């Protein structure tokens, strides 16, 4: 019987140093959490939350800008003034204001004194970062679930191949026995041919299972983000559960999905508060200081000897804006925000019901799989005894070849049914842990 040879590497340095290390479920989960794109994207979203907080905070911090320009005025605007100003009563005098060249450098400062939407935005930004953190936790739990499922499916295929190898060995022995009987004239040629057909069919099935095992290993490598050319090695451990664990349904508030939805409702409340902030007045402090040069020449490098004169100026003020009436637009937006909140609360209620149903189904599947495992273990043992008796009866002429082949198939079916029940149990176990918010225990064992 050929045994599956496995090998797993956890990084380039680790790769070259320990080529014989095995891939445990914990190792597979840790590798996926470090290398899978979904986990890395979730961590990047947390960094995005930090950047969003900094962006919103900037609105409450002082703002300072410096600007400058130089203009050439080929045509100066003329104004008509009364002649009395110039000692010319009864006449109008056209006077051009300004100079052909002007240069201006200005520094402007502003500081928010009161803006309710900015303060609300700061709180919302912090809550958004928390949302990304919870979402990253949920993403990791989803990865753990997928990796564990794929990991156990590799074990199932491996166990199926082992079952077939055992059955193949039994069939080879049967073929050898019938061949000896046929050579001694104690068996018919048709019996010998039928036994060889059964052997060839099992060999073909074995090759299909080898291919299926390779595919399941490739799926596991993809699930954990491992390169396809790295061989995978699983430890030889019992796939069968040793006992039915005591399971208690945890409060739904412990589930990451519910925590995430509650955080979403919190964000929607902040959005409503930001809309309500449109009712509040805003106040800000502004100040500017500038330097102005003007004359018939470019002011930047000319002075009074060229007719260019420079002067500074400044202004300080407070801007206050009080909303009075906008056609009830703010009220309409507040109502829309409230509808979003109520819809999110309905999502929470529906999600809790779905989780309760998933827990009940998982528990039923877990208990039924446990019963099936116990039955199939007994059934496989009985099938082995039946096969042994049938082989003895066939050698003594008390059973037909059909009886013998049927007994072999019955044993193979019993073993495969046991393997399927073991996989069903493991998958149900994952669902129970998920419903209890304890998927991370798979990563701790």
From TrEMBL:
Chief location category: membrane
Coiled-coil residue windows: 373-431
Compartment(s) of residence: Cell outer membrane
The organism's place on the tree of life at top rank: Bacteria
InterPro entries per the UniProt record, alphabetical: OMP_efflux (IPR003423), TolC-like (IPR051906)
GO molecular-function term, one example from the UniProt record: porin activity
Pfam families: OEP (PF02321)
One Gene Ontology term, aspect cellular component: efflux pump complex
Keyword terms, alphabetized: Cell outer membrane, Coiled coil, Membrane, Transmembrane, Transmembrane beta strand, Transport
Gene3D superfamilies registered for this protein in UniProt: Outer membrane efflux proteins (OEP)
Family that this chain belongs to: Belongs to the outer membrane factor (OMF) (TC 1.B.17) family.
Descriptive protein name: Outer membrane protein TolC
Organism encoding this protein: Salegentibacter salegens
């Amino acid at each position: 019987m050929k045994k599956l040879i496995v090998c797993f590497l956890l990084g380039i340095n680790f790769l070259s140093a320990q080529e014989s290390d095995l891939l445990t479920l914990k190792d597979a989960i840790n590798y996926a959490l470090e290398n899978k794109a979904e986990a890395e994207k979730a961590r990047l979203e947390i960094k995005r939350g930090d950047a969003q907080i900094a962006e919103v905070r900037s609105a409450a911090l002082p703002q300072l800008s410096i600007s400058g320009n130089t203009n050439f005025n080929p045509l100066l605007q003329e104004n008509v003034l009364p002649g009395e100003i110039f000692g010319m009563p009864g006449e109008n005098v056209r006077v051009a204001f300004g100079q052909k060249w002007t240069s201006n450098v200005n520094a402007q400062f502003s500081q928010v004194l009161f803006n309710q939407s900015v303060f609300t935005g700061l709180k919302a930004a912090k809550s958004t970062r928390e949302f990304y953190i919870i979402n990253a936790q949920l993403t990791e739990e989803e990865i753990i679930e997928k990796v564990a499922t794929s990991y156990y499916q590799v074990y199932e295929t491996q166990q199926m191949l082992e079952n077939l190898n055992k059955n193949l060995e039994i069939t080879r022995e049967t073929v050898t026995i019938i061949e000896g009987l046929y050579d001694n004239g104690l068996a018919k040629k048709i019996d010998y041919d039928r036994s060889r057909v059964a052997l060839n069919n099992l060999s073909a099935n074995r090759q299909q299972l080898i291919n299926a095992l390779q595919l399941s290993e490739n799926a596991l490598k993809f699930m954990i983000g491992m390169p396809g050319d790295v061989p995978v090695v699983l430890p030889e451990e019992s796939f069968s559960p040793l006992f039915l664990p005591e399971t208690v349904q945890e409060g739904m508030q412990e589930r990451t999905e519910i925590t995430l939805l509650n955080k979403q409702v919190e964000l929607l409340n902040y959005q409503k508060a930001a809309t309500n902030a449109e009712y509040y007045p805003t106040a800000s402090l502004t100040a500017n200081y500038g330097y102005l040069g003007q004359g018939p020449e470019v002011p930047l490098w000319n002075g009074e000897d060229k007719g260019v004169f420079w002067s500074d100026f400044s202004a300080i003020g407070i801007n206050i804006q009080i909303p009075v009436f906008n056609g009830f637009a703010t009220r309409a937006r507040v109502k829309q925000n409230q509808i979003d909140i109520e819809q999110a609360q309905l999502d929470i209620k529906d999600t809790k019901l779905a989780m309760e149903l998933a827990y009940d189904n998982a528990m039923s599947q877990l208990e039924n799989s446990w019963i099936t495992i116990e039955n199939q273990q007994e059934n496989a043992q009985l099938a082995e005894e039946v096969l042994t008796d049938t082989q003895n009866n066939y050698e003594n002429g008390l059973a037909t070849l059909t009886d013998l082949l049927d007994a072999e198939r019955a044993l193979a079916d019993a073993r495969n049914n046991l393997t399927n029940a073991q996989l069903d149990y493991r998958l149900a176990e994952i669902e129970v842990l998920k419903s209890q918010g304890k998927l991370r225990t798979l990563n701790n064992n």
